[in-house]
Amino acid sequence: MPSASARLAALTASLRRFSRSGFVRHIVTLATGAALAQVVPLLAQPLLTRMYTPHAFGVLSLYVALMSNLAVLATARYEMAIVLPSDERRAVNLMALSIFFASTLALLVLLAQLLGVNHWLLKLMGGSTSEHDFSVWLYLLPLSLWLAGLMQAWTNWNNRHTRYRANASGRMSQSVGMSLTQLAGGLLHAGPGGLILGQFAGQVSSLLAQAREDLRRRFHWWRDVDRSSMKQVAREYSEFPKVNTPHAFVTALQDSLTLSLLGALSGTATVGFYGMMMRLLKLPAALIGQAVAQVAYRELAEARNAGRPLRPIIKRMAVALGGMALVPFLVIQLAGEPLFGLVLGQTWRTAGRYAEAMSPFILFHFIASPLAMVPLVIERQRTAFLLSLVQTALFVGALWTGFHLWNDPVRAFTLVSWVMVGYFIFYFTWLYHAANK
Q1: pLDDT at position 115
Q2: DSSP-based three-state secondary structure for 126
Q3: How far apart are CA 134 and CA 137, in angstroms?
Q4: What is the pLDDT of residues 359-406, one digit of tens each?
Q5: Does the pLDDT value for residue 52 go beyond 70?
Q6: In the chain, how long is the greatest CA-to-CA distance?
């Protein structure tokens, strides 16, 4: 058995390798950019909650949920594979494949709208055109989907080439563009349309910042794109559209089903309170979690290719994320209602009560989000997909059960939260054991 000094020397060498790899530095770059990107929305939020009603935020939540649900289909998830190939030519053709699918889906959605699908979408959201008052804004949906697909592709393209500053700049540009447009809409009394236009403006700003380097170099890598290579990488990484796409769709569908169920059971204002609460409670995931996920995905892929164990990286991620999130979420659980009322206005104290009920779930979700990259690296996507189905069924089922038993959102959210804590404990256990195999 190695001595204490030998173990200490091995740990020191490991930490040195860890530091030299740039893992921490890259996370700091992305997290700093994300933190700066969230400053503007945080400053704008108290103004926006006084300019727009909970109903307007409810409409925005429904629009974003619809867009997000379709956006996971935009690239057929081939953008997730861009980081993996050792050969640059294959990565280039995966990038081109992602752009092709995003453009195709946007055109298909536009065609469906021209054939009258918007009326059906409005009914699916639980109300009439006059109630939601944003049917005209649904015509932005194809462009929003196209932009979302391109943003996803460029995030992974920049990740592959360690352009973390470009991704951080994209987040900053998105926040500034979105917040300024929404504030202008509020001053003009634009209603839900002002919030939706802000969402669109943020996407445009983000993509331009992310793709700035490639725009400057006039997409020099496009010369390596050809149809036969695109077909080849499409076949080689077919697991992503076959398994990861439905997995991502089910994950996004959970949000859509939740919002639709809340709208049907309690009204658009409740959707607005819930959407605002989730947006603010998931800020730490935007600040830290996504940065960890982007860098860890690349590090895990490199470790797998080199035959190094993955468990130490996973354990380090989980412990660090849990330690960072524990105190803030304890504060939310103990004082969410007065904090929301103080910052957003007394109208939003209800959202604070929802936050108190959902804080245990958000804590575990914060840890789980970056770890979702692990099944991609260890090729356990099918099992992860089946588990996502279980997660969605538990979440929506617990929400419906809570309303059925008590007809009270706070008690229903409390039930959802603790059911999901149990699920995540099981998920973490499976992930840790699967990584060893």
Answers
A1: 84
A2: coil
A3: 5
A4: 899 888 888 877 777 887 777 878 888 888 899 899 999 999 999 999
A5: yes
A6: 74
pTM assigned to the model: 0.66
Q: Which two tokens stand for residue 328?
A: 């803030």
Query: Which string of DSSP letters, residue by residue, matches 232-251?
Result: HHHHHTTHIIIIIHHHHHHH
Closest alpha carbon to 257 in 75, 391, 87, 145: 391
Question: H helices within 267-310, ranges in order?
Answer: 268-281, 283-284, 290-306
Residue with tokens 């989730």: 278
- For the chain, the domains span 7-436
Nearest Cα neighbor of 296 from 261, 273, 321 is: 321
Q: Is the pLDDT of residue 125 over 60?
A: no
Q: Please give the pLDDT value at position 15.
A: 41
Q: Is there a contact between 171 and 287 (Cβ–Cβ < 8 Å)?
A: no
Phi, psi of 38 (to 5 degrees): -85, -10
- Identify the three-state secondary structure at position 225: coil
DSSP state, 74?
Answer: T
Q: Provide the token pair at 163.
A: 């352009």
Give me the count of residues in the chain: 437
222 sits in the region (left: phi over 0; alpha: psi -120 to 50; else beta) called alpha
Say how far residue 245 (Cα) sits from the centre of its chain: 14
Cβ neighbours for 371, distance < 8 A, ≥ 6 positions apart: 314, 317, 318, 428, 431
> In this structure, are residues 378 and 304 in contact, taking their beta carbons and an 8 Å threshold?
yes
The burial class, CB within 10 Å (0-12 / 13-18 / 19+), for 37 is buried
Reference 278, options 251, 253, 259; nearest CA is 259
User: Torsion-angle region of residue 87: left (phi > 0), alpha (psi -120 to 50) or beta?
Assistant: beta
Question: Which letter does DSSP use for residue 161 in this model?
Answer: T
241 is written with which tokens?
């559209």
Using DSSP's 3-state secondary structure scheme, residue 22 falls into: coil
Q: Which amino acid, 80?
A: M
Q: CA 417 from chain center: how many Å?
A: 19
366: nearest Cα among 327, 310, 405, 412? 327
Positive or negative, the CA dihedral 58, 63, 64, 70 is positive
